[in-house]
Amino acid sequence: MTAALEQDLTGDLAPRGEVGEPARRETWEAFRRNPMGVASAAVLGLLVVVALAAPLIADYPSGFSADVLREPSAAHWFGTDNLGRDIFGQVVWGTRVSMFVGAAASALAIALGVVVGVLSAYVRRVDAILRMVVDLSLSLPVLPLMILVAALAGPSLPTIILVISFFSWPEVARVVRAQALAVVGLPYMDAARVLGGGHGWILRKHLLPAVAPVISVTVVLTASRAVLSEAGLSFLGLGDPTSWSWGRILYESQQSGSMTSAWWTTLFPSIAILVLVIAATLVAIAYNDARNPRTRED
């Protein structure tokens, strides 16, 4: 998450008065008028389709063949690796695992981050403690700790998902708390309490819908960061050795020594990672601009 986008996400939400179906419709119309946002959303949609339809697009890359380290051609669009396996198939099947890890890890991180952020803003007695926990978590060296925990737990898909989500939730909590604080002190929240609304009803009907746009943006950004983290851990040999991911393709290339001699073994999985991260970031920026009435008026 870029610093500028994170600062924009933590701006005041409630004063904009965006509540209900008309506001969502205006946001959608503004988003549709942003060609970069629409194109980026289409790219993300295409990646999801590739992940779901991987068995229909390419055969699962397994075994070996005599076509060792072949450059990209009509027979092998992305070339082959040191064992003659088709890299196009690896990238396609790697899309399924990478997208699944990104979705699962971001879902867990979002769930924990939203709970902590909302409670910190709504229950002021625990705000200092939760804020200290979040600040402490954000001050930790994330990458070395992720490597350590993944190495101790052993390489597997569930381990990667849990490790990434555990180190991703503090940023979500900080953004959600900042938005929730802007809503908690508004008059309609006081009115809901005066009218006898229970805490659960207030959270469900007022606070969570008010921070939902920020959560939507954070989901996309957290998922892209999870894919990057998975690629980094897999490149270090800490990913699931039984399934293909974009990080494992890079790991296999590095282990075989073909990373420097066969450019195509690293180029295409790297492009896939880059495309996903850029598309997710642009979608988040476009949506954040679309939900802001001040931006729509420019």
From TrEMBL:
GO CC annotation: plasma membrane
Top-level division of the source organism's lineage: Bacteria
InterPro entries in UniProt: BP-dependent_transpt_permease (IPR050366), MetI-like (IPR000515), MetI-like_sf (IPR035906), OppC_N (IPR025966)
Gene3D superfamilies: MetI-like (1.10.3720.10)
Cellular compartments annotated: Cell membrane
Stored PROSITE patterns: ABC_TM1
TM spans (from-to): 38-58, 99-123, 143-169, 175-195, 207-228, 262-287
A Gene Ontology BP annotation from the UniProt entry: transmembrane transport
UniProt xrefs under Pfam families: BPD_transp_1, OppC_N
Location, primary (coarse class): membrane
Keyword tRNA-binding: no
Keywords: Cell membrane, Membrane, Transmembrane, Transmembrane helix, Transport
Domain ABC transmembrane type-1: 95-284
Family: Belongs to the binding-protein-dependent transport system permease family.
Protein name: Peptide/nickel transport system permease protein
Species of origin: Phycicoccus duodecadis
